[in-house]
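Dear support,

Our group has been running a series of protein-ligand predictions, and this particular one with P-hydroxybenzoic acid is the one our PI (initials K.S.) wants archived with full inputs and outputs. We had some confusion internally about which version of the output was final, so please treat the block below as the authoritative record. The input we submitted was:
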Amino acid sequence: MIESKTQVAIIGGGPSGMLLSLLLHQEGIDNVVLERSTREHVLSRIRAGVLEWSTVELLRRAGLGTRMDLEGHVHNGTRVAWGGAHTLLFDIHTYTDRHFMAYGQTAITEDLYQAHDALGSDVQHQVDQVELHDLTDQPYVTYTINGQAHRLNCEVIAGCDGFHGVSRGAIPASVQRNFEKVYPFGWMGVLSETPPLDDIWYIQHPDGFALASQRSPMLSRYYVQCDLNDRVQDWSDERFWQTLLERMPPELAASVVTGPSIEKSIAPLRSFVTEPMRYGQLFLVGDAAHIVPPTGAKGLNLAMSDVYYLWRALVGRYRENSEHLADRYSQVALKRVWDTTRFSWWVTTLLHRFPDQTDFDMRTRLSELQYMSESPVAMHQLAEQYGGFPIEDWG
Ligand code: RFL
Ligand code: PHB
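Confirmed final output from the archive:
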């Protein structure tokens, strides 16, 4: 058994774990990241694309602004289309004085790994059999690398290991409460080396939802709602483009540049929240504690606000000798989690086709879209939520 020690053991080297690690290093708080996959695998995942302004500011604060500010595409709002001809602008800038940025999670992860390379921080890959111990007293983590057993003694464990990680399961069932909603459809996503549309478009159509997004001037990301049982091989490029274009208003479809896909994947849609987000010295962060369906573009943004709260809480503990913020972590993070969970559920329900939906359901959704396009009050509410729920200022 190889034994070592650190102040904060971070389980998971995705965006949550790597950003938390970087921010803690910058405050002189010692930490080690344990990641199950290879670095290549982590860097190849294609996921989020839309950043709230508070996420942009946090990434800048961590020193990750250079490439993001150069390559990210700043938007005033996002567009919705329905009924073949109607369109609506979620006008975030007019109503909230904020913007959002299209900049891919893949690029953020690359920027994070580069910053860690420059720091020479301790990020261990291909860790296996990770187990968390003694969470309410003197915590430690055991794991193996290439069959070699390790023990990492620590003061805090940050569970940043995503929805399928092990950290959440280390909280005793007697104190944990889970809330879940699984949606009866998925998203089929395609990445293509084609120029994207100027705006991000959410499309409501009787056959199902579609989304046009962007990564860079020559990289587009598109999604169409698909069946839960579909497999990637069921979706030829031809079928994908045909489905996407059929769901768009004709004028918009005419401006889409199609081309061969360079990546295709299917994501199921789920809402999930676990409470509490802290147990003893274990703090859950990001997808380890909550999942939202991607329709509101919120998962990564919520992970980043958790990171912010935990970072400030640990700075409070190690620099200011105060437990005040750590004690409030779960309660404050969960407030934003539930606001965002509700919004993501609502926008998913509004824009998707459900297998059991009736004509009545469809008409009421169309009426709601129409109402939003006519009522500044409704638009203000929407803009405020899409732009991002408030984050309590912890310094
Ligand atoms: P991650 O990214 O899942 O990273 C967790 C890391 O932990 C590792 N791991 C373990 N490590 C050690 N031991 C174990 N036992 C481990 N088990 C797992 C994993 O290998 C991984 O490296 O969680 P994190 O860091 O909390 O980040 C969350 C985000 O990835 C996620 O919320 C977003 O991608 C969600 N999301 C979006 N969020 C947005 O804010 N805006 C968007 O536009 C947006 N679009 C999306 C999305 C997610 C999507 N999918 C694929 C679900 C679009 C899609 C299609
Ligand atoms: C993306 O660009 O991948 C994206 C954009 C908006 C969403 C979800 C995903 O709501």
